[in-house]
Amino acid sequence: MARATKNGCNNHGTMRTGQSSVEIQQSILNHLHYTQAKPLPFATRNDWYMATAHSVRDQMLHNWLTTFDIFMSSPREKHKIVSYLSSEFLMGPHLGNNLVNLGLSESVRKALSALGQDLEAILAQEVEPGLGNGGLGRLAACYLESMATLRVPAVGFGIRYEFGIFDQEIHNGWQVEKGDNWLKNGNPWEVRRPDIAYEVKFGGHTEFAHDPEGRLAVRWIPEKVIKGVAYDTPVAGYRSGGVAVLRLWKSEAVASFDFQAFNAGEYYKAVDDKVLSETISKVLYPNDEPGIGKFLRLCQQYFFVSCSLQDMIWFHLSLGRGIESFSESFAIQINDTHPSMGIAELMRLLVDEHHLEWDEAWRITRESFAYTNHTLLSEALEKWPLPLMASVLPRIVEIIFEINRRFLDEVRGLFPEDDQRIARLSLIDETGEKYVRMANLACVGSHAINGVAALHTDLLKKTVLHDFYELFPEKFHNITNGVTPRRWLALSNPELAKLISSKLGEGWLSSIETALAWLQGAAKNTTFQQKWLKVKQANKIALAKVIRERIGIEVDPASLFDVQVKRIHEYKRQHLNVLHIITLYNRIKRDPTADITPRTFIFAGKAAPGYHMAKLIIKLITSVADVVNTDPDVAGRLKVVFFPDFNVTNSQLIVPAADLSEQISVAGKEASGTGNMKLALNGALTIGALDGANIEIREEVGKENFFLFGLEAAEAQSLKSGGYNPRCWYEGNEQLRQAIDQIDAGTFSNGDRQLFRPLVDNLLNRDEYLVLADYQSYIDCQDLVSAAYCDKKKWAEMSILNVAGMGKFSSDRAIREYGEKIWKTTAIIDPTKYVYAGSKGRDSKKGEDTGIHPTPRIRRSKTTESPLVS
Ligand SMILES: *Cc1c(COP(=O)(O)O)cnc(C)c1O
């Protein structure tokens, strides 16, 4: 099924409205009238939000079509598009970010206020699209925004889940999951494209025959065909005019009405069929969910890569190019192995449907695909039961077998007689029940493989992907993750951004890689420090207010805000943090007059619904909170808060208020982390082990400005291989023993000795993540944190130096590296050709410059004083 028309893309018209507040006010009224169809007196807050969003979207659609025109009229060698394939995109709320990136915040605020509306209330109306579990989906969102900012032609392909990640409520201290009905009030950001739709086959069997030229031709006779329809959401770049597209596929029945079934009186069977078709994009699976939903998840993955690849081929051919040059049009990045079936699917499309020879198709496929690995946890490496895959995707399995046969023949040539190596490299795991190993498929079918932090890439080469590294060393790259400073600083922490602008001038948000380092010169400046602390204090007061309103706990904004916000997982070691809280509590109980630096411990994060230990850790946190928060001996010096429903919206609220960032995963387990980057970028100091990107953060901010504890990855490895016995560590440490005994004895569970038994048993008998081994080092390090926090001036200096060192962790830097090392794309749309809508008709205010900012030539220097600092 192809699109109805071949796009005539020129002359798309002019801007519908200008960007002055008067023009925007008119646009909002028009949308209230013509889009929402509401008389003014009956307009709800949601109507105002929708009308505002549509007004902003108009501006973006214009930029988008302009981007497209420039793309089409630029030289052919620039016609390369980055396709970012990801089963998750955790975009966060759109409105605020689009206002920042388009430079429209002030004019929209003014327009709304003239209409009697408050921008903050309108912003709060947006339900965020929670189409991701955590870091991986959020990374995809940051990368789309950076590609738009850098004007790299880019499409993010994914699934339009009707229900995203569940909403989390806390009932009686336990996590309760609620369905996330994010579309119920309408989604003003997406454009449905009924003309962009593709058919996807499932089940059935294949038939082998020869075509008239005598070539083998395979037909896949499916049991079922499902249609994917595109929904496009524009993603605005920061003040560059560039727009990327997020194209999400919704599954639908091919024909919504099966006449034959209807005539036979089986109307409900026809409806059933429709329901089944629509199930594929119904719900996002929480990760770590064992077993159940396997079948649907497999269907989801194939569904979205098939639609995306058919769409890419359609576009490539519509440019008038031959199929054999496909890899000149697209650089396909797969975000973890979830889209790795795309490798086999592209082979199928090229060989079965476009009739290329296998070798030619294989060259194109390898040139097109690149694979980002995201995990070192071997249990998290995706593999599909072969019988399941063979029944759902018979043709794909045949192609995987053929890829494997040819690949293993090559390996045998290189390593004759090395059967063990061949068994490890095989795309099929045959050690017991048979599985298809998706990481192996991704490695074989890609020209580039990257890890997401230096340590992670190093460990990939040494462990998880060692055999592939020996085979293809030239394929391996490291590209350390990054986050966008627009959402994670300008939007979430506007006052800090303003203060930084007072030192760096405007324009630094598109060049933090070089610009932030200039803050080093201001780190010792007392006046600047005071302003810095004042901003942090205001952010803490704002968070304290939300905590009071939502959770009913009173916290002291003068206390140290100690923050651990991320998915709940044993390897991330939230329970190590809890052991520290109990240790401090015991110090107070031993001596209520003890000198304790007041702290507010803030936790947030979802546990996968089927991950019982993670859910028990949440219950432990809330149980310890109940005891500590109300104990008169504590006298309010310690407070423990579990902030429910961690998502992007809540993250933007918590991150700017953090003093201390807990990045305490056991060394060698966290691939990179991006929460660590967001928190440091907002002036939190990190307490962390040498894991993931923590190592590089510490190098950048200086080791004297980072609280390091714990074993290194190699030490952790050798401790475990040497027969680690957690019970020895427990018995040898009195404070640790006391804390664990209290959990076991029911001190935090009203005497219930059963409740936390699985957790205690696990720690004493297995402790896979070395909580007990790292305990003392962590406590000692926390004591240093407490002491450091008492010296406000020194703390402010360290906080400023942390932000000054964060330039490297911009997603702009990461995208530039992907472009240079992997995509080999020079396809950055020439800014001089750009007719940027924002360059006309703006009502400029201080800090709201909408022009294009060239990257300033600033050299990063640790020694020279910044001339910009007074
Ligand atoms: C950044 C982010 C994450 C990732 O946090 P890590 O600390 O890197 O695990 C997860 N969820 C949300 C909502 C985020 O914003």
TrEMBL record:
SUPFAM superfamilies documented for this protein: UDP-Glycosyltransferase/glycogen phosphorylase (SSF53756)
UniProt keywords, alphabetically: Carbohydrate metabolism, Glycosyltransferase, Pyridoxal phosphate, Transferase
Domain of life: Bacteria
Region (Disordered), start-end ranges: 840-870
Catalytic activity: [(1->4)-alpha-D-glucosyl](n) + phosphate = [(1->4)-alpha-D-glucosyl](n-1) + alpha-D-glucose 1-phosphate
Biased composition (Basic and acidic residues): 840-851
Cofactor(s) named in the record: pyridoxal 5'-phosphate
Keyword field contains Signal: no
InterPro entries the record matches: Glycg_phsphrylas, Glyco_trans_35, Pyridoxal_P_attach_site
EC number assigned by the record: 2.4.1.1
Pfam families, A to Z: Phosphorylase (PF00343)
Stated role: Phosphorylase is an important allosteric enzyme in carbohydrate metabolism. Enzymes from different sources differ in their regulatory mechanisms and in their natural substrates. However, all known phosphorylases share catalytic and structural properties. Allosteric enzyme that catalyzes the rate-limiting step in glycogen catabolism, the phosphorolytic cleavage of glycogen to produce glucose-1-phosphate, and plays a central role in maintaining cellular and organismal glucose homeostasis.
Family (UniProt): Belongs to the glycogen phosphorylase family.
Protein name: Alpha-1,4 glucan phosphorylase
Gene source species: Geomobilimonas luticola
Taxonomic lineage: Bacteria, Pseudomonadati, Thermodesulfobacteriota, Desulfuromonadia, Geobacterales
